[in-house]
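User: quick one - fold this with 4'-deoxy-4'-aminopyridoxal-5'-phosphate bound?
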Amino acid sequence: MKEYEKNIRKVEPYVPGEQPREKVIKLNTNENPYPPAPGVRAALKEMDTDMLRLYPDPTADVLVKALADFYQVDSSQVFVGVGSDDVLSMCFLTFFNSRKPVLFPDITYSFYKVWAELYRIPYECPKLDKDFRLVKEDYYKENGGVIFPNPNAPTALYEELFVVEDIIAHNRDVIVIIDEAYVDFAGASAIELINKYDNLIVVKTFSKARSMAGMRIGYALGSPALIRYLNDAKYSFNSYTMNQISLICGVEAVKDKEYFEENIRKIIDTREWAKGELKDLGFQFTDSKANFIFATHPEYDACELFESMKAEGIYVRFFKSPRIEQYIRITVGTREDMQTMFAFLRKYMKK
Ligand code: PMP
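Assistant: Sure. Structure tokens for the protein plus 4'-deoxy-4'-aminopyridoxal-5'-phosphate:
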């Protein structure tokens, strides 16, 4: 080993789902199959590229204000970043600095472990129960912070707000982060608790319900004090995380509440219909409240199924991880894409 090797930070990176170049039925990374709000397209068409000479506003003021208006909170309670991955990474850096372990479920978004390792934060992973439900009492013990997604990924299960609040209330001495990437497809958001609990941060994204994964916009809501700490960390890292195009398009997306709600309704309708189709084929699955379904089949090996679907140009996600290696995660696509998938599955299962 070279001497300098000792000083190199070595990390095992997060592995995102595949982004194939060729045209496939893409149900593997929980993107939205519908386009962003029409205002985003119009803004891009009319964009004055001369403005790109200048640095963007480091405070991302227009987008912060648009989100504050949307959620009826003060601008001092909003932080924005380059996708919720960037926001979550900043949260780990800013809020998880204890010697005690940070807690997150054993089956959850696999990036949490990567950030914990990257920033050298100790962590523990309480087990979800046999039905993949969060056991709230596991989060009562001493810890250096708590984070979980609601709905959880890849299980797609949503915990009612009283469960989330119970965990926040039992952890007033640490920061609790609720990752609500998928909450728009589910139910009540913990955003309504941010004025009640000054130890709460809620993280959200434009990548799912707002159809803008390619734009990379995420945000966090919390008390003005916590948001100030996040901004201090951000300005110590990179002043200009939000580019000018994202700021303009982000505002356009937030403006169109009607389109946003219609988009969500279409995904939920297709999800509920798809559950019926999966059931007819003999699949078992959790009661998804997200834009994806986490399914297993008692007669078919998940890895083989995943490979066979991929060979047909139908991409879903498969995790070779303990307890879930017999599951596939299927993003809810358009009705047509889902129909193509079901036609293949019926042929594959000779049904
Ligand atoms: N949280 C969860 C639970 C996710 O599944 C994802 C999507 N991979 C993210 C956060 C990050 O999404 P983005 O960076 O696109 O906002």
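One thing worth noting: Residues 83-85, 109, 149, 153, 179, 181, 205, 207, 213, 218 surround 4'-deoxy-4'-aminopyridoxal-5'-phosphate (CB under 6 Å).
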